[in-house]
Sequence to fold (944 residues):
Amino acid sequence: MASGTSEAASSATDLKLQFAPFSSALEAGFWHQLTQKKLNDYRLDESPKCIKGFYYNGDPVGLPIRLTLEYSAFDVDAPTPAHCCPALGTLYNTNTLDAFKTIDKKALLEKVAKEIWEAIQSGAAVKDPSILSKFILLTFADLKKYHFYYWFCFPALCFPEGIKLVKECSYLEQVFSAKQIESLQKVYDGLCTNKGATALPYFLMKYTEDAVQIALLEDWDTFFTDTKKVTVGIYDPCTLAQHPGWPLRNLLALLANRWGSKLDTVEVLCYRDRTLQGHRSIEHSVVFQVKLPELPSSSVCPKSVGWEKNPKGAMGPRIVNLSECMDPKRLAESSVDLNLKLMRWRLVPSLDLDKVVNTKCLLLGAGTLGCNVARTLMGWGVRHITFVDNAKISYSNPVRQPLYEFEDCLGGGKSKAIAAVDRLTKIFPGVVAEGYNMSIPMPGHPVNFSQATLSQAQKDVEQLEKLISEHDVVFLLMDTRESRWLPTVIAASKRKLVVNAALGFDTFVVMRHGLKKPAVSQSGCGAVDSSPSCSSTSSSSSTPAGSAPSVPGSSLFSNIPGHKLGCYFCNDVVAPGDSTRDRTLDQQCTVSRPGLAMIAGALAVEMMVSILQHSEGGYAVASSSDDRMNEPPTSLGLVPHQIRGFLSRFDNVLPASLAFDKCTACSPIVLDHYERERFSFLSKVFNSSHSFLEDLTGLTLLHQETQAAEIWDMSDDESI
Amino acid sequence: MNLGALEEDTFSTCCHLLLQKSEQLRDGWSWESVQGSPEGYLKKTALRSAVITSNAIWSQEGSKCNSEAHSCCQYSSDQQVSEKSVVVDEDDRGCTVPEGSSQFLQYEYHILYSCSYRTPVLYFRACTLEGRSLSLEEVWSSVHPDFQVRLRTSPLNTISQQEHPLLGQPFFMLHPCRTQEFMRPVLQVAQDQHRSLNYVVVWLSVVGPLVGLDFPQEYSTLLQ
Fold:
């Protein structure tokens, strides 16, 4: 016999029957439906509600015995899934966690146990045995956090002395012949069809060597003529070889109470009916015999048990956190992420989204460029976006700046940096956006009118230094040339990646600034250019303005490594100054073709993403237009230094240029002064005319040397 | 007629035949209709033991959420339900059910008709026995590695997270944008050989296994 176990060996004379308890199984839809019910129907109503679950006897070995509740649980008239048995329950949904904790669980259990006991005594349970599998569900739904507390109870009436096993569990195939098994399956299906059901929770059974007969519980008196030994069948959701499932418990109480005095032994068939790969079998059903103690009608309701243990094995409730699948904000986040992940599945399998998503972006300027850059960053799943701008939204802005609306212009206009953050959060609540309404001090725009203006400028510089330190990528998206100077210097000093976008009327430039090598070389390895970048840049690169390429035939501008690339100011031979002073209105304002900012803003973000995908990041060798036919350096393609676009020709070119050793922003001498003198150096720049920086960097000298010469010039077609 | 497309009434017929076969095979498909509407969908649930790993492949946010969700059985101190106040008798007749280290997952598969794509669409989700839906990464980790690779590289399918059109709950969906394309050659062959076939059955035999849906070969005898 296959069922020889240690249990059997220990004491064959005094074996007590043990039952496999139900485990609760909730489908996701159940909680969604409970939430809807709580919000729309129940509201503060705590009265008990009828719900319905079901159990199944066709599981493969190893699966837990379950009572399942799905979204249709609240509709007790909904059809039960085919070949499953329904179980009716009572839902107690409390309004507070406190009520959930303090509600008298013992009383709840006893109440249902009493109902079952009364139904047994009155005979109602004989007619409708589903009463025997009643259950209780206690819940508290915290709909702010989407935490659900719950506790199931499957009430079972107990025999004080337990139930003695007369004959141990065997598989049906060990007890029944193939013929009997076939007959049983046939009569079971027949009775189901007869009753218009696809499963019967309990049935009576008698058999000969040739045939099996079964009947409903209510037909006991006519079905059994001899009650010395009777056989009852239960639809058994358990898959264990040695134990019947929970639904048997109350049936045995019923049998003992109604017929116990007449019964000698009761044979129990735990009917298990599974189909694997189209092959149906009931051979693995389990049969055993018990001796039932009496439970006389006069007696009070027996002791009952049934509260489910939690996963820790303790008597206590369970909690499930469903914020991920119910909180709309979390849903938005996972949908956005999933959308991005799809790129990786097929199109760009090696795409490292982590690098993109975790990049903290500082957007200096929240105008046409800033708005478009922010939107594209959000499309890439970037979570950390910080705006700096000192302007207010004016009536002309919303049509070109997609984060603002007409309403934002009223009453003098909202601050751009603040309004942009609000809008970003509305578009995607998962974003971590911050806004700083502040000015960026500029060369040629004196700050020394008073002590107050001076200390304000100092504060602004410190704030900007702090912000640049805290972010990974700095976007320069302002509308003046000179406002880009300070962040260029700070970012170069802090070795932060800078992506710069600037617009003309129908031209734009999007570029990454050269990323200087780390200032202090900590590793001793002897890289060729391992000395601090400042000096190496100046010594190894010839000035574009001055000399011709030293090696004939090799382009000066091909294969420039990232640390030797120039910045926005490297191509200039004049220091930034007050560019608004001698300009007409159309030159001062950003007058550009309306599509330009979207194009440039999008390209700025895509350039950042491509840089991030390169194994060397900001140190990546600059791709140029010539590389368009070559194997791209990243999964997303080229990593250019600059993209210069000409809308009139609908054409982009990808130039690359070296850092200029006399650059007014990133040259070693400027960085050196900034790093040593900090604000006192910066304030000199703010307060002086062009000549201060030009003298410092040697541009003045250069001017004298190349008087009236045609200066190497890329068509840096800035409007301002 | 657009070969590759499926008309709604043909969809119903195909589903009806599939249901009959499922009943025969006891495969568990059922038709769920929506109250007060002729619309409905085929539904099947399956419980499987699975080992899920929650280290989402790239989402930092995700893994944070997951670990939070996995600790959902822990009370924080202010939420402590005093077990002393809970007067509940322990049972001495319940057997201890051996619980392995594996978790059990409930899978739900829904087949709906898409009017805009004129194809069937497969919706699915998986949840724990507590009713917590899994993230897609968690679902993958429970799917056989061969299928993971196949699905990720399959040109046939794209998965997105969508609200179930009839239930309004979040589900994953195998996007139908390529369905007509991959069905067309199959239908063409059948047409050339003057054989009729069950669109839904053929389609499901292709897409089902990709998301762990067991679809027995016996259905192949049902191709009308």
Helices of chain B lie at 8-25, 60-70, 136-142, 145-153, 179-192, 199-207. Residues 54-87 of chain B have pLDDT under 50 and may be disordered. The longest helix of chain B spans residues 8-25. Residues 8-77+96-209 of chain B form a domain with the Yope Regulator; Chain: A, fold (CATH 3.30.1460).
